[in-house]
Specification:
The complex is a heterodimer of chains A (about 425) and B (about 400). Chain A is α/β, with parallel strands linked by helices and about 425 residues long. Helix content of chain A is about 40%, strand content about 15%. Helices cover about 35% and strands about 15% of the residues of chain B. Classes of the chains: A alpha/beta (about 425), B alpha/beta (about 400).
Chain lengths: ~425, ~400
């Protein structure tokens, strides 16, 4: 729908050496807004998401190009493959970096320097270069070489200690939350550096620690300790200012609605809706602390009401009465949520094997330069020729030699299954708007 | 990395932020990077100044810890938008800005005659960002929401918690943090485009959309391939994963590669003497462990309870295993790594004292991020901005104040 429109970042060239989620997200969003984004990978150290075995048919074995995460996190990028253990490959990577505005890497701290592609090398070739390294703990300090994944970072950043019920274990997100928080912050940092370069003409290096990035979204937690000497601990869904403030069971299995009462007016509306006008007259319940003292009985009356309704029905009734409420959406619900649909938050994007699939759009609807996903993530080395011959300008002889010595790695095409071109499995029997 | 006299990467950018609990982290990100962020508040101060807890439990407008953290480096001006002159002042401020963050409910600014198109008619390069719970179109546009409700509607709440219990939110107003990050990034993208072309534009950001974007690991595209509905049981594509009990707290473990499992299984067998954990059925690709979660968790728990979390952290990392302790706030603030990188920063708050705050989410080596300025009182900079920068006289100001405009 936005196929030919200008995008905001069409003038930027991005090169990424990435694995996992945090680094790839930056390149993904820059590409969504039009940047030419090249991802370098190697078959010698494959990204975990390329080891995807479809759970519905494990007999197929590893099927990288069916990985939903490859599709989602690497959409819009060009895929090139280099064996960076070979000098020729490092030379080619340097030539690409010399032309780039932004380099993104998220190997273990120090790895990119050992490969000869550290910022101090690349800046000599390209002083305007902006380079970001993302790692669990940053490039310096006693933990710099420690191993950690997204969920580990939640534990060290204080997040796990405040997430969950008071009588339960620390809860980790199912989202690899630290990766996306780091990727999002990294995107902000890179864009700020581009702004700085517009003014000063100089590039710079950005050292992003996932731990510091995630701790920054929990600043209030540390302030409570720093200011008042208290550890906030785990308090479920409780709010200091809203009572009730929780999720309540609905009709069906494991179905819920979230309800938040912000003030006395909303409390009276809730009493009306629950047909408990006697509570309006009860002075004790007109303050949030009064309601907190009686929360057990209040919760059970709300639950008796909500259990008779679906989440959408309950949300609608509550919102119509002027009470903040929201259906607790599970992943298939997100696909059919009428609001997300109206806002086109699932984008139909070309997929090399399936023909097309749906990926998440990125938040923020731009009036003049809407973003888009030109193609979902593709095979390792899929775009070698485009990257090295067209964009870098290698001639056939040099390209052929680099392929022959294995500096440029061949693509996955030998392993490629026939194209199915029938759309994602989950939608084949359904009518879906594209 | 701060170098004296150096300016932040966004120096010279002016941002008008209509104060709200939703957009405050977005404005903070921009302000801490050097943008001049003017917080526009109603005369009594923004409602987010009244969010507890408070510093020393004293409910004053500069002591809400939530407000203190999310409004660093901003200047505050109070305007009464119910007044025609208040609206005119806002319009005048907007003509000096690069970015206007409208966090009022959808259509409200327009009803004041200050729609984003009206603003851009006066200043074509202006980027406007509408920052609301549900965006400016769609059937739920006018629904009322909170952070919890945004986490519910964006798909995060359902997958967070323990199996068999009600979903639980990510604490610390994370829906607004997710949206704030996108608000800042989207604004910077549109500002770069405006610099290049002279063309401003409008961005319609919804908190629900932002939360939804963070679900991609367990979200729609995964469901489309495997048909699985992720719930609140452990569901990482790797195992072991999650928090496990220790003798003095909890440890977080993530085993992502086959060789890491081999090392852990050998360690468990060595400690517990139970060699069944070495069974080849658990070896190889992650799916072999994912399919045996409960059995594996029993082996891992029998092992972790024998150690303290510090022992497991040290010994695990020595074996290159992703073991980390679950640290509460006090321990995070004493963490050796964060100390070595000077992460927590002392900020002086006039008349109250000094407070240690979380520092930058990134270290920019070429241009500083800084937390130099404490949080403003409501309207603290009204005079500085109106008299010092927009050319009003002291008499004008007294007149405006007398009539309740500022």
């Amino acid at each position: 729908m936005n196929g030919n429109r200008t995008r905001a970042l069409e003038n930027l060239k991005v090169l990424e050496f990435t694995i996992g989620g945090a680094g790839p997200w930056i390149g993904r969003i820059l590409a969504y807004h039009g940047a030419t984004t090249i991802r370098i990978e190697s078959r010698h150290s494959p990204d975990v998401i390329r080891t995807y075995v479809p759970p519905h048919d494990r007999k197929q074995g590893v099927q990288p190009d069916l990985s939903p995460w490859l599709a989602e996190w690497h959409g819009g990028k060009l895929h090139a493959a280099l064996d960076l253990r070979k000098p020729k490959a490092v030379e080619l990577a340097k030539r690409l970096a010399a032309q780039a505005d932004i380099v993104i890497e998220n190997f273990k701290a120090g790895t990119i320097d050992r490969l000869g592609l550290g910022y101090n090398c690349l800046r000599k070739l390209n002083p305007r270069l902006i380079m970001i390294s993302l790692s669990g703990f940053g490039q310096t300090g006693p933990y710099k070489e420690f191993i950690a994944w997204g969920p580990n970072i939640e534990s060290l950043a204080g997040m796990s200690s405040v997430t969950g019920y008071p009588d339960g274990p620390p809860v980790e997100s199912a989202l690899a939350y630290a990766d996306w928080i780091a990727g999002g912050h990294g995107l902000v940092a890179v864009l700020a550096a581009v702004h700085n370069r517009e003014r000063t003409g100089e590039g710079q290096y950005i050292d992003l620690s996932l731990l510091e990035s995630l701790a920054a979204t929990h600043g209030e937690v540390f302030l409570e300790y720093a200011a008042n000497g208290r550890d906030p601990g785990r308090n479920g869904n409780d709010s200091p200012i809203m009572v009730p403030h929780d999720v309540y069971p609905c009709a069906g299995e494991d179905r819920w609605v979230a309800i938040a009462v912000r003030d006395t007016e909303e409390w009276y509306r809730l009493c009306e809706l629950l047909d408990r006008k006697d509570w309006i007259l009860d002075q004790r319940l007109s303050t949030r602390e009064g309601r907190r003292a009686q929360i057990g009985i209040i919760d059970s009356v709300i639950a008796d009401w909500s259990r008779l309704r679906t989440p959408d029905h309950a949300m609608h009734d509550l919102q119509t009465a002027g009470i903040p409420a929201g259906a607790v959406r599970k992943s298939p619900d997100l696909l059919t949520d009428p609001h997300l649909q109206a806002r086109q938050q699932h984008e139909r994007a070309p997929h090399l094997r399936l023909g097309w699939t749906l990926v998440n759009a990125f938040p923020g609807i731009f009036s003049a330069t809407p973003g888009r996903t030109d193609r979902t993530g593709a095979n390792l080395g899929e775009d070698n020729r485009r990257v090295f011959c067209e964009l870098l300008g290698m001639d056939e002889a040099e390209y052929g030699a680099a392929c022959a010595e294995g500096a440029i790695e061949s693509s996955d095409l030998t392993n490629r299954r026939p194209e199915e071109r029938v759309g994602p499995r989950g939608l084949r029997s359904q009518e879906v708007k594209g | 990395m701060t170098v004296e006299g150096q300016r932040g990467p966004l120096a010279g950018r002016r941002v008008i932020e209509m104060a709200s609990v939703r957009s405050s982290y977005c404005g903070k990100l921009l302000a801490d990077l050097g943008a001049d962020v003017l917080l526009v508040e109603p005369p009594q101060g923004d409602a987010s100044r009244r969010i507890p807890p408070f510093w020393f439990d004293s409910p004053e407008p500069t002591r809400s810890l939530h407000f203190l953290y999310n409004n660093t480096n901003k200047r505050s001006i109070t305007l009464n938008l119910a007044h025609q002159e208040g609206r005119e002042l806002l319009l005048r401020l907007a003509t000096t800005a690069d970015l206007f963050i409208d966090s009022l409910s959808p259509g409200r600014l327009h009803s004041f005659g200050l729609g984003t198109e009206a603003l851009r008619a006066l200043r074509p390069k202006l980027v406007t960002l509408s920052f609301t719970h549900f965006g400016e179109n769609g059937p739920y546009r006018d629904y009322i929401a909170t952070d919890l409700i945004s986490q519910a509607m964006g798909g995060v709440l359902y997958v967070t918690g323990e199996p068999g219990r009600a979903p639980v939110r990510l604490s610390g107003l994370q829906a607004y943090k997710m949206a704030g990050i996108f608000g800042a990034a989207d604004s910077l993208i549109a500002l770069l485009y405006a610099d290049r072309t002279g063309e401003g534009q409008h961005i319609d950001l919804s908190v629900q959309d932002a939360v939804h974007a963070f679900t991609s690991l367990v979200g729609v595209s995964k469901h489309l391939d495997d048909g699985v509905v992720p719930g609140r049981s452990k569901q990482m594509p790797n195992h072991p994963s999650g928090t496990y009990p220790t003798s003095d707290g909890w440890v977080s473990i993530m085993i992502a590669r086959p060789k890491h499992w081999d090392v852990l299984a050998a360690w468990i067998a060595e400690v517990t003497g139970d060699e069944a954990v070495l069974d080849p059925m658990f070896q190889g690709p992650p799916i072999n462990r994912v399919m045996n979660r409960d059995v594996i968790d029993a082996y891992v728990t029998a092992f972790t309870v024998r150690f303290t979390k510090a022992e497991l952290f040290r010994e695990g990392q020595q074996r290159h295993l992703a073991f980390t302790p679950v640290n509460p706030a006090a321990e995070v603030m004493r963490d050796e790594q964060l100390k070595a990188r000077n992460y927590f920063i002392d900020v002086e708050q006039r008349g109250i004292g000094q407070l240690q705050m979380a520092g930058a989410p990134y270290q920019l080596h070429g241009a500083p991020w800084r937390l130099t300025s404490r949080v403003p009182r409501p309207g603290e900079h009204t005079e500085q901005i109106l008299v010092g920068e927009l050319g009003f006289s002291q008499l004008d100001l007294q007149d405006l104040a007398g009539r309740g405009v500022v």
